[in-house]
Q: What sequence folds into this?
């Protein structure tokens, strides 16, 4: 996802916009730019470049030499991942109208841009980029009749696709206009200034009061004053949300990378996720955000889980939970497929939409389709006020704190913890006994310590990584609860180290993948001491018979893996249903050190964005 920052006020506009862009660097980008409006100056000052924000700052120092530019009362900035057009200066945002009086930054995709571009070209408009965004700037110029807000509103009606935009004009150097449809825009409320951004991390240093625009909203912002109208051009009031974390949580805190910091934050993050939600005396859990009493939970006879990426693998663990604890038939849906395959939604179906950011476009589309078909929807999100959280209306926040590294870590383990608590709550409305529920709740309460003890193995895991850092292919295998753990481990390795890694159910090896095994292809076997372990041990022996080295991730004290493994990574013993947590933490550490040894940009892996807000 690209990043947007905008500011209108009396302070250091340039500094605030550039600082905000730095806060958005973690989301991934390949070019950056800023635009400043100076009163009395018809042309907007624009500086943009491919590369990093540090490159932009060097260019700003060379190009913005006037005091007027540096004290402009209004400005916008952008970090871009290339979609339409190469990552070069021409395609970087902001984009200007042909007369140079309007500047636009945009997240999303304009699906009908080619038709609009052709029509505007025939009318004499000149295009200087290959982007879909530039048509927005020219379209606003075409619609402009003295009122910037009206021009933006009229132009947006002609667009098909998704957008989060911020617009400024040299004719209105005290006004910033923003809008959203499918791509988030947050508004920071201060006494004498207003900030907009695509992510609250760019805002939180200045205010804790944030308004999240809904789809179709149009914002007109001046210093300390905001006006919002809905898609029907009706004035609306959006209640502000209080952001309960501070800027210190989005700093590295002495760690070399955000990912490593977030791996080590997992004991605390899990503590926050389960705090106040465990009722051991009653053998159940209390998740107030679900807004469901036992009678309502007892009526649910089918669960559909929609998610993508790491959240999808957490959802796979959740499928086991709901079927094992609550005897509810559960499907795990790749969210991108959900609305296109005409899914069957019955009257008592409940959808769980899992997304760390709460902005994942495919998962949001699944939420909307499920609601159209009459399903109850519960969101499982980390970001307070995110679109999925708001549109679901009820669900559970992870409370894991901000996750800056592109590769998700603490979100996964907190998602697993939350899914376990939800399944126990549903199970207690069925045949899960008080005593069994109490044992499960007590086990969950020990999860932060299990995570802490797993982290103590980092040096041992690093030594294993040192032996295999030059390998270019890996297999990950597992059964039962270890199957989604194997998939997640393979994903982490490929995401940040660029090593080709595939995850398989261990039984699938003999159905094709085993043909690829050789001494240059290590196999990571997730073989915690749970049901099905013996068969995985046999699969490990088959791998060694093909000369593939085997790295076992096994329970401490379990010596059965020694004879069939070249290396053994130990994790704490815990109940079967919680075993994915220590195993995945060990996989995260392994992937991190593999990537570090290979010199990869761990927090910003190539071609990846933190939030996937386009389909």
A:
């Amino acid at each position: 996802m690209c990043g947007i920052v905008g500011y209108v006020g009396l302070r250091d506009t340039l500094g605030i916009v550039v600082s905000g862009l730095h806060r958005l660097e973690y989301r991934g980008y390949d070019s950056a730019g800023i635009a400043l409006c100076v009163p009395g100056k018809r042309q907007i000052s624009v500086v943009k470049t491919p590369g990093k924000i540090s490159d932009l700052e060097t260019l700003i120092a060379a190009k913005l030499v006037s005091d007027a530019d540096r004290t402009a009362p209004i400005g916008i900035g952008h970090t871009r991942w290339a979609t339409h057009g190469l990552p070069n200066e021409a395609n970087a945002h902001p984009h200007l109208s042909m007369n140079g009086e309007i500047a636009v930054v945009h997240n999303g995709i304009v699906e009908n841009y080619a038709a609009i571009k052709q029509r505007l070209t025939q009318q004499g408009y000149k295009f200087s980029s290959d982007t879909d965004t530039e048509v927005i700037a020219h379209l606003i110029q075409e619609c402009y009749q003295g009122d910037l807000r009206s021009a933006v509103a009229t132009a947006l009606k002609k667009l098909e696709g998704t957008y989060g935009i911020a617009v400024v004009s040299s004719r209105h150097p005290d006004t910033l206009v923003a809008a959203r449809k499918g791509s988030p825009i947050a508004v920071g409320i201060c006494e004498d200034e207003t900030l907009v951004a695509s992510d609250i991390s760019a805002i939180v240093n200045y205010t804790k009061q944030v308004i999240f625009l809904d789809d179709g909203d149009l914002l007109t912002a001046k210093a300390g004053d905001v006006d919002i109208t809905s898609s029907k051009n009706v004035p609306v009031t959006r209640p502000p949300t209080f952001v309960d974390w501070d800027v210190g949580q989005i700093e590295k805190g002495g760690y070399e990378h955000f990912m490593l910091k977030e791996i080590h934050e997992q004991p605390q993050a899990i503590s926050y996720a389960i705090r106040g939600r465990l009722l051991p005396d009653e053998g159940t859990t209390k998740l107030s955000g679900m807004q469901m009493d036992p009678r309502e939970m007892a009526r649910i006879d089918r669960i559909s889980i929609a998610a993508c990426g790491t959240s999808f693998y957490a959802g796979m663990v959740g499928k086991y939970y709901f079927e094992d604890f609550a005897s509810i038939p559960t499907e795990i849906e790749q969210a991108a497929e959900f609305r296109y395959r005409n899914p069957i939604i019955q009257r008592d179906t409940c959808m769980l939409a899992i997304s760390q950011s709460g902005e994942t476009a495919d998962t949001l589309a699944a939420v909307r389709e499920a609601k159209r078909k009459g399903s109850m929807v519960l969101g499982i999100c980390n970001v307070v006020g995110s679109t999925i959280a708001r549109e679901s209306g009820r669900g559970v926040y992870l409370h894991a704190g901000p996750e800056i590294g592109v590769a998700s870590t603490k979100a996964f383990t907190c998602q697993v913890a939350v899914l376990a608590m939800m399944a126990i709550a549903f199970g207690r409305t069925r045949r899960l006994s008080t005593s069994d529920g109490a044992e499960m709740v007590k086990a969950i309460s020990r999860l932060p310590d299990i995570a802490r003890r797993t982290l103590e193995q980092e040096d041992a895991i690093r030594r294993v990584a040192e032996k295999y850092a030059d390998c270019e292919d890996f297999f990950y295998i597992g059964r039962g609860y270890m199957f989604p753990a194997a998939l997640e481990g393979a994903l982490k390795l490929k995401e940040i180290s660029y090593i080709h890694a595939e995850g398989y159910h261990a039984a699938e090896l003999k159905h094709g993948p085993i043909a690829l095994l050789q001494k240059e292809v290590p196999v990571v076997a997730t073989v915690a001491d749970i049901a099905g372990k013996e068969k995985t041990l046999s699969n490990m022996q088959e791998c060694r018979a093909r000369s593939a080295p085997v790295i076992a991730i096994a329970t401490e004290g379990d010596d059965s893996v020694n004879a069939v493994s070249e290396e053994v990574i130990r994790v704490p013993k815990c109940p079967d249903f919680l075993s994915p947590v220590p195993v995945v933490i060990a996989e995260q550490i392994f992937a991190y050190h593999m990537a570090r040894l290979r010199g990869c940009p761990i927090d910003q892996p190539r071609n990846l964005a933190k939030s996937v807000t386009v389909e």
